[in-house]
Each structure stands twice: as C-alpha cells, then as structure tokens.
Amino acid sequence: MAAPEIRKTLVQVEEIFHEGGPRAETPLLRGAILSVVKNPFAGRYEPDIQPWMEDLKPLGMAMALRLIEALGGDPKRIEGYGKAAIIGQAGEIEHGALWHAPGGYAMREALGEAKAIVPSSKKVGTVGTRLDVPITHVNAAYVRSHFDAIEVGLNDAPRADEIVFILAMTTGARIHNRAGGLPAGEIKGEDGLR
C-alpha cells in the first residue's frame, strides 16, 4: 500500500466555561482533528485490507501530536480521548475500522502510554455527515465524569471515495459533572478500567 493521500485537515477546539452553572476558572478544552483521506478501497471489495493500517500509523501520530499542541501542548493536561471515522459512500464500514490501531495507539503513545481503551464510532455517510465521537478518561474507562462526546463533520467531506479519520481529546471532566462514579483522583491504573 501507499501513504494516505490527504485532501484537507481541520483542527477544532472548544473552550467551555459553564453549562448553565457557575463559571469555571479554567475552561474545559474539547478538541478534535479531522483528516480527509482518499480511500484506496473505494468502489470495490478488497479481502486483504489490513496492510493499510501500517501505512496509517504515521498519520495517526501526526494527528495526535497536532491535537495535543492545539490543546496547549502539554500531554499531561489531556484527560479524555476518543476516535472515529466517517466513510464515503463508495467505501464500507470496515475501511473505517482500520483506524482503530493507528489512531488509538498513536494517542496512547503520544500521551505517555495511556491505559484505557480508546472509545470509537464510525459510519458510512455522504458529504456533510456529522458524527459524535465518544470520549472517556485516558487511564480508566469507569471514570464517569469524563464520559463525553464531541460532534464533528465537514461541509465537503467525505466524498464517495474518501474517509474522514478523527481523533478527539479533552483536558478534563465535563463542566459541572456530578453524576457520581469513580473519581479521577482515585484511579488505580491497573487495568485501564479503574
């Protein structure tokens, strides 16, 4: 296979000061990076697609590092993450599934070996399709305060023969979180769950 052919990239960052309650001194940053890539399998069924995952690894790392930079540059500030893919209509859902390892492992490595599995979503869609990217705590999936999502999409992507690969990160818990569960300060860090 060959390195992915990128048409465009978008980086977005939200600063959230409140959700109707008291204003936070430091806003929650919730960001995403989207790369629109030509789908080499568009329009045909290819039984052996796994080799493309290796070619996607540099893209995953470049996107992870760029998103960390957009969120302030300090990997230690990142507390939540997620990944996703929107596949153009000439592709199939399995093409988006190839992003699991290159996107997820890149973020975990860039953040210093985060322990929790990276949540994911994917779907086939048309130009302008939007998608909610699930987010959980980087070291413990059971930390309820960090269950979040960020909506992403581009007005001109994915075209039928493209895939939009997405990484998302946050700098903390939801503003005004009070749904209980395991507090981030009590993470044991043994298994990526607690």
What does this structure look like?
This protein is α+β, with helices and mostly antiparallel strands and 194 residues long. It has a single domain, classed as 60s Ribosomal Protein L30, Chain: A. It has three helices and seven strands. Strands 1, 2, 3, 4, 5, 6 and 7 form a seven-stranded mixed beta sheet that branches. It starts with 5 loop residues before the first strand and ends in a 24-residue tail after the last strand.
Query: How many angstroms separate the termini?
Result: 39 Å
What is the domain total for the residues? 1
Tell me the major beta sheet: 7 strands, mixed
Rg is 17 Å
- Let me know the CATH homologous superfamily: BB2672
CATH fold descriptor: 60s Ribosomal Protein L30, Chain: A
CATH C-level label: Alpha Beta
How many strands? 7
Helix content: 10-25%
Spans of at least 5 consecutive residues whose pLDDT stays below 50 are: none
Mean pLDDT score, rounded? 95
Approximate shape: globular
CATH architecture: 2-Layer Sandwich
How many separate helices? Answer: 3
The proportion of residues in beta strands is 25-35%
Task: Please state the structural category.
Answer: alpha+beta
- SSE arrangement, N to C: EEHEHHEEEE
Could you outline the blueprint of secondary structure elements for this entry?
Layout: E1 6-16, E2 28-38, H1 51-70, E3 80-87, H2 93-97, H3 100-110, E4 120-124, E5 130-137, E6 148-153, E7 162-170
Parallel strand pairs: 3-4
Antiparallel strand pairs: 1-2, 2-7, 3-5, 3-7, 5-6
How would you concisely characterize the structure shown here?
The protein has 194 residues and is α+β, with helices and mostly antiparallel strands. The protein has 3 helices and 7 strands, in the order ββαβααββββ.
